[in-house]
Amino acid sequence: MIDEKNKKDLYIKSNPYFFKIIGISAFILIIFILTASIFFDAPLEEKAEPYNAPNPSKSAWFLLWTQELASYGSYYVYIIIFLFIFYMLLPFFIKKLPVQAKWFNTAYKWINILSIIIFLAILTLTIIAYFFRKEYWLLGF
């Protein structure tokens, strides 16, 4: 049975302005994406023809980083598997840390830094694959 003192620990303390910031940020992001979609077409290819394959054949933009990583060697695919397992198990790693609704909480500093580094690496690989890969998957400008 949970007494009144321990009942307070079940709730996450938060600032009401925190959710207002999230709502405003989500709205700005949606407006940005809608505006960008007006100026940039979706990078879709024509219907696939088995006897006339495009060179290079690229995957969808959100998977290009995996294609770029796999082009360096077959063992680099394990990085993708490791990242998947790491982020799936992350809630179990941070279970003992204090829970607070706060942007860039100092208790999660290593997770924040690691996630930003991973994001920048994925972004870099995507940019390389999308803009700098030419025929036969060679780098070019």
Describe the structure.
This protein has 141 residues and is mostly helical. It is built from 5 helices and no strands. The model has no long low-confidence stretch (mean pLDDT 84).
Order of helices and strands: HHHHH
Q: Unreliable segments (pLDDT under 50, ≥5 consecutive)?
A: none
Can you summarize the main beta sheet?
none
Radius of gyration over all CA atoms, rounded: 22 Å
Report the mean per-residue pLDDT as an integer.
Answer: 84
Q: Strand share of the residues?
A: under 5%
Counting helices, strands and paired strands, the structural category is mainly alpha
Count every beta strand, where a strand is a DSSP E run of 2 or more residues.
Answer: 0
User: What's the helix count?
Assistant: 5
Q: Span from first to last CA?
A: 67 Å
Shape: extended
Helix content: 40-55%
Quickly list its features.
single chain; 141 residues; mainly alpha; 55% helix; 0% strand
Layout of helices and strands:
Layout: H1 4-7, H2 16-39, H3 64-72, H4 77-93, H5 109-131
